[in-house]
Specification:
The protein is built from ten helices and 22 strands. It is α+β, with helices and mostly antiparallel strands.
Length: 477
């Protein structure tokens, strides 16, 4: 795949090119208006498989789908059926070229699917409460992958496809694992064996609820360490970035949502896959088209109410946080309601008009708001109506703002605008800008700082207790 430059804003100008091993015979294979990913040749070299977030190559902002195109160029064919709701993160040919395997996002988990090479029904080959990473198909046909679960941050597993899928026959060389519609995965590595014996690890479960308009919404609820039924606990509501993404089962050891630490400090954590998330079909994802905050923030609120109705969350001890798209959501929520007693907004948007020019990418924002803010008869009213800054006078929630000094995705001025608005209106607030950091904070001391400052803030305004900062280890031997 080749683009005119490495800028994210020009990713849609990329095309697939092919050439001989010696660099000769260069040809352009695709000619469309979308970004391609997961590009691979068929075993016979006659076709090229790829994924793209489109229906037909002309419009974007869909769940990623699987396409095939002749290696000599020509018309691409979408293989993903219309009724499929998953997002195709990766796609690969089988060894004999008769089957296509897909690493798919299905909401709160990711699984491996298969479909005939000509397209058709997609069948799940794996199941379970996990995320899949590092997926590869060995020359022998075995599938190798890393499974991340709520109890284990990642182990290597292997699965052998049923014999027909490998072009073989049942008999003397039967597959190493039972032949079934769902594979049984065999664990290979044991890097984290004994983890549960050494540490208290929180429990996470999938929950569903009805959105304000009756649509079913899904999310993940993590319980505090030592939680007992009937106990009301403070609830952190953490929204993922993207927003074209989804929160999945996993250990949750990231700086955005550091689940084990949150749970160890007595917090339950809700991660809602609100409208605009991937893995639930195109209508669910495209609910944001034309109006970013239509149902997305309402899904977060109804999810919060669902955890309260379960008897888990204390309605008087609610916290909102998130990074990037999760920061956009946090900025919206604090201007929408004062039910949350504290909040932390990481790299969140305040003003979509200024954000359009400041950011290094505009791809998704044009369909969200129905055009650019620079065109004739620009939909400025739609941009402003969906900007949290518009309603900043409503904010009563003590809120932290965190952003990287070198963030080009959601640049610092967005956080500065929100912080200054709250400060001017007498709302408790602090702004922290990490030196050298891009959109995601990479330096370990900055990551630890974020966890400490958030937990201190939440303990102060929600739990009403003192917090002792965890210190970074001293450098040296």
């Amino acid at each position: 795949r080749r683009a005119p430059n490495p800028l994210l804003a020009d990713a849609e100008k990329s095309e697939i090119w092919a050439m001989n091993a010696d660099g000769s015979g260069v040809i352009q294979v695709t000619s469309n208006k979308v970004e391609e990913g997961s590009v691979s040749f068929s075993p016979d070299g006659a076709a090229i498989l790829y994924t793209s977030a489109t229906l037909d190559g002309n419009g974007t902002y869909y769940n990623e789908k699987v396409f095939v195109v002749p290696a000599t160029g020509g018309t691409s064919k979408r293989l993903t059926p219309d009724d499929v709701t998953f997002e195709a993160n990766e796609a690969k040919f089988s060894k004999d070229g008769q089957t296509i395997y897909i690493h798919a996002n299905v909401g709160v988990s990711s699984q491996i699917f298969e479909m005939p090479v000509g397209g058709g029904k997609a069948t799940a080959l794996t199941s379970g409460e996990h995320s899949i990473g590092g997926w590869q198909i060995a020359p022998s046909g075995e599938h190798v992958m890393v499974l991340d679960t709520a109890k284990n941050p990642g182990e290597v597993f292997v699965a052998v496809p049923p014999a027909p899928a490998r072009g073989g026959k049942r008999g003397a060389k039967a597959p190493a694992l039972p032949v079934s519609s769902t594979w049984v995965l065999a664990q290979v590595s044991k890097l984290h064996d004994g983890l549960e014996k050494r540490f208290a690890i929180p429990r996470t479960e999938r929950i569903t609820w009805k959105g304000a308009d009756g649509v079913t919404v899904e999310g993940l609820l993590t319980y505090p360490i030592g939680f007992t039924a009937g106990q009301r606990v403070p609830l952190m509501v953490s929204t993922h970035g993207g927003p074209a993404a989804s929160d999945k089962f996993g250990f949750g050891a990231s700086t955005s949502t550091y689940l084990p630490v949150m749970a160890a400090n007595g917090y339950a954590v809700l991660r809602p896959n609100y409208r605009g998330s991937t893995g639930y079909g195109d209508p669910f994802l495209r609910d944001m088209v034309g109006h970013y905050f239509a149902n997305a923030h309402l899904d977060v609120m109804t999810g919060t109410d669902a955890v309260i109705a379960m008897g888990v969350a204390d309605p008087d001890r609610l916290i909102k946080l998130g990074w990037s798209g999760g920061g956009h959501m946090t900025n919206k929520i604090i201007t929408f309601t004062d039910r949350f007693k504290a909040a932390s907004s990481g790299a969140g948007a305040a003003n979509w008009v200024s954000m359009y020019a400041q950011s290094d990418v505009r791809t998704y924002r044009t369909p969200w708001f129905g055009g650019t803010p620079w065109q004739k008869d620009a939909p400025i009213d739609v941009y402003w109506a969906n900007s949290p800054l518009k309603d900043i006078a409503n904010v009563k929630t003590p809120t932290l703002f965190l952003v990287g000094e070198k963030d080009v995705r959601v640049p610092p001025p967005q956080s500065v605008e929100m912080h200054r608005g709250l400060k001017a209106n007498g709302v408790p607030t602090k702004l922290f800008m990490a030196p050298r950091e891009p959109h995601g904070w990479n330096e370990l001391r900055h990551q630890l700082f974020k966890m400490n400052v958030e937990l201190e803030w939440f303990d102060r305004y929600v739990v009403k207790r003192g917090y002792a900062w965890e210190k970074a280890p001293e450098s040296g031997s």
